[in-house]
Fold:
Amino acid sequence: MDAFELQKLAEHTRFMRETGIALLAASGILAFFIFIPLAPAKTSSAEIVVTTSTVPDAFAQIPLEAKAAVVYDLVTKEVLYAKNADAQLPLASLTKLLTVYAALIELSPTTPITISANVTHLDEPRAFSAGQTFTLNDLARLTLTASLNDGAGAIAEAIAERENRTQVEALAGAAAALDLAQTYATNGHGLDVHLTVSGGYGSALDLARLAGALVDEAPVIAEATTQSFAHAVSKGGTSFKVANTDPMVTAIPHILLSKTGYTDLAGGNLALVFDVGIGHPIAVVILGSSKKARFTDGTALVAATLAHFAGVASL
Structure:
């Protein structure tokens, strides 16, 4: 499904919702006169009333490659779709969402963060040199958009230094603040520690709540992840332009956040937040898919979500 089709789907969703509200009100009035008796009616004790739902299930029979996935309504706190949503799995670079959230609850967006020599040796993607300094806001925008390991490492170091505790303890504190029971990190970037240990673990449901919290806490940082490129200038005047790791980011209507992740242990991961109406964000999280299928899995769940709110099985 391309960007134009998804946009049409979003517009149709809004129309269907508005129409549905009007029909619901009219139906309620009609039902009052038709079904409410003027006097108590006698009913048989053997009478059984059976109600059936006529609302189509937009999420039925969606083929996903992911090991776990969730569609979570951040307004109503309702799980609209779940596949092993509570399973604890490797997060890969979705760990960076926790790192940035941890920084935002401890540091000011204008806090200067300097790239240390330690983080410049992390695996790619990376973009910085030792000694370069950015505000937390700018470094977080670049880091999340391009999934930069050196940027995430520098942010994690800054949190630990400010709190005078280890990075693991600092990140655990952020997870506890959101009551993310399945989530913890052994580093700030999510790279696998070795062949059997990931840099971060969590459930699809935990990550949906974390992504929503990050949109609430720092909409400007989250908004950067919805663009094809992110731009920032270091304190020394060096300009940076980095590409988004999500190739489908411009195809999601009213998107508020996008974050990818991939390692050998985790497979392909993806977190999305988008609006289905004014001030009605929905989080979609994919864990344990493949490097390519995480995007088709995500597209399928976004389309199903829009159909769900339009009250149809599919569009």
